[in-house]
Design brief:
Layout: H1 2-8, H2 21-26, E1 34-38, H3 44-51, E2 55-60, H4 63-76, E3 81-84, E4 97-103, H5 109-122, E5 123-134, H6 155-161, E6 166-179, E7 183-195
Parallel strand pairs: 1-2, 1-4, 2-3, 4-5
Antiparallel strand pairs: 5-7, 6-7
Length: about 210
């Protein structure tokens, strides 16, 4: 999309070059294998996951962002597959991903429900979906994210969208988000870790 090509076109990694904190904390819950990263942008999360040994496919609507993602992957010495696609049209397949990652991927509510339904089907047995997004409460902060409340899901929304999965982590609250120049400060977020089938994951802290 043109808006994202323009945002990434300055050459700056506007959300930084380091991975999202929530992803770093929870990535170890993803089984070894293939990981799909949605709205990957300039590559910070996909490159991090590739560095952990996952086979990462990064999907984004911005060719400019994904070019920078590939450059970051080369710099870090890791493989990264990239696909330029609109998530409204992208087909992730069925039962083929050990992990699916959605970090600050904000979609209109109708499209979000459709995309997440496809992602549920795309998870392999035992596969893990990690999601962090801003909530409507983020509108009180001027620290990043869209200003349209329809793009901002609540935990209740995501419980419905992901009802076919088992939630092993589901939190809505506030935290400090420092990511590049566009995510900076106190933020209202929702975080979800969901599993495709019965597994040995539990409600305990993943580091505990």
């Amino acid at each position: 999309m043109q808006i994202w090509d323009e945002r990434y076109g300055s050459g700056e990694y506007v959300y930084g070059r380091e991975p999202n904190d929530f992803l770093v904390t929870m990535a170890g819950l993803i089984p070894p294998g293939r990981v799909l990263s949605l709205a990957e942008g300039q590559g910070r999360n996909g490159v991090y996951l590739a560095g952990l040994g996952y086979q990462v496919t990064a999907v984004d609507s911005s060719a400019v962002g994904l070019r920078m993602a590939r450059e970051l992957a080369i710099e870090r010495g890791v493989p990264l597959e990239t696909i330029v696609a609109d998530l409204a049209d992208y087909d992730p397949g069925e039962a083929c991903w050990e992990g699916i990652v959605s970090i600050f991927c904000h979609l209109p509510s109708t499209l979000r429900r459709s995309v997440l339904a496809k992602m549920v089907r795309a998870l392999a047995p035992g596969g893990v979906l990690l999601l962090e997004a801003y909530t409507p409460a983020q509108l009180q902060f001027d620290t990043g994210g869209p200003r349209d409340p329809d793009l901002l899901p609540t935990l209740a929304d995501l419980r419905k969208d992901l009802a076919a999965l088992g939630l092993v982590h589901a939190v809505e609250g506030e935290r400090l988000v420092i990511e590049g120049t566009l995510h900076r400060g106190r933020a209202a977020v929702v975080q979800v870790v969901a599993v495709q089938s019965e597994s040995d994951l539990d409600e305990a802290d993943p580091e505990g």
